[in-house]
Amino acid sequence: MVARRLPPVVSAGPTVTPEVNSYRHCDNVGMRIDRVVPNLLVTDLSRAVAEHTAVLGLEVLMDHGWIVTLGDEEGHQLSLMSHDASAAINPDVSVFVDDIGEALTRALRAGLEIVHPLTAEPWGVTRFFYRGCDGRIINVGTHTPLR
């Protein structure tokens, strides 16, 4: 097989400043991402759970009454939520990490808006939310002992 040379990648988007570009690399030294879970905001939680379990074959892994996480044996997960129990804003995605302090430091260093402060929640998660440049809300958390 003859290797062929690919043309250079050309971006049709706006020019990225070096400051923003410096955050685009994957630097997880000192912090590991354990999982990423999309959070869908729904108006009828029980109906949404029934629909997604029927169509996707996922099972209920966690049910707090306001958020239900569905998943399978391979680790795929999807959360459905009616509202967030302790935050004034609903997250679009949850990213679980092994070092929440490092994640918060990185978010602050990046100049991101923290829209829910670092909080030890009673259901065994310590988390904070930040707003991404597109307005999406990212829930960054880690599992902690129940209070």
Automatic annotation (TrEMBL):
InterPro entries associated with the record: Glyas_Bleomycin-R_OHBP_Dase (IPR029068), Glyas_Fos-R_dOase_dom (IPR004360), VOC_core (IPR037523)
Gene3D superfamilies listed in its UniProt record: 2,3-Dihydroxybiphenyl 1,2-Dioxygenase, domain 1
Top-level taxon of origin: Bacteria
VOC domain mapped to chain residues: 32-143
Name under which the protein is recorded: Glyoxalase
Organism, scientific name: Nocardiopsis ansamitocini
